[in-house]
Amino acid sequence: MKTLTLNFDNALEISKAIANQHRMKILKILSEKPHNVNELAEKLNLPFSTTAANVKKLEDVKLISTELVPGRGTQKVNTINYDRIMIEFYQTENGERKNETVMEMPIGEFVDCQIKPNCGIVGEHDYIGMQDDPRSFYEPEKKQAQLLFFRDGFVEYRFPNRLPHGASATELEFIAELCSEAPYHKMDWPSDITVWVNGIEIGTWTSPSDFGGERGFLTPHWWLKNYTQYGMLKQFKITQDGCFLDGLKLDLPSTIEDLNIQDTPFISVKIGIKEDALNKGGLNLFGSKFGNYDQDLLMTLRYSQNNPS
């Protein structure tokens, strides 16, 4: 997740730009996928000129950007630059956020997996290994993966544990671009995708679709358009108050204390399909050069510094 962190010097300009219902709706629409101005005007039921003026205001404060992309001729497409805006009321002397560590992990850097076909591992320019062959997930080139897909199973990552000695973890956030896995693509194809941290389930998201038919903003053009194209950016979080999915509290008993982060040399994050999942529709996991979001796997660990006794 790309976060725009504001301070007192720049918060007012951004606040003025988003203090408008049409511009807020534009940001919401673009958070799902890129659109051109005609598409935005149609969804907002506004004249083209009004929509273009609102897009320009968001561009001026760099909340969105416009790029020329090939299509039916060359067209201007708007994309959102940030997934979250935060106002920082306290900063350290060098301007960095206090008591937070952010780590990004390439999707090909998994340390363990259990894969069942349909499956595949895809680089920026070609398949890695053979399609529908779980052995491909053990190829050395897997580290260059930009798309992983499988019908059943899991992949596990191990993030470095950067919790300072003597500190207590207060919140762990994990963000990934995900969707279901069907042959080619299928818009009505639910799948229950689960995330575990240090062996503890922190959330299950039911993906509604294997999204395709419209090219992902970052998806390479050699990748056929009738294949999976993009996913949705999902935020899984565990805090002292419980587990959350996209900010909504889940009915799960675990809290961050159950992860025992202070006792582990790494933080294990596993993504997959439960054996008893109601909707076993597989998953697609996107890297920074596939799909709609320029990121790999993003984990943020927040903590409090314990007072010395």
TrEMBL record:
A GO MF label: DNA binding
Keyword tags: DNA-binding
Pfam families with a match to the protein in the record: HTH_20 (PF12840)
Domain (HTH arsR-type) ranges: 13-94
Keyword Repeat part of the UniProt annotation: no
Cross-referenced SMART domains: HTH_ARSR
Superkingdom of the organism of origin: Bacteria
CDD domains cross-referenced by the UniProt entry: HTH_ARSR
Gene3D superfamilies: Winged helix-like DNA-binding domain superfamily/Winged helix DNA-binding domain
Protein name: ArsR family transcriptional regulator
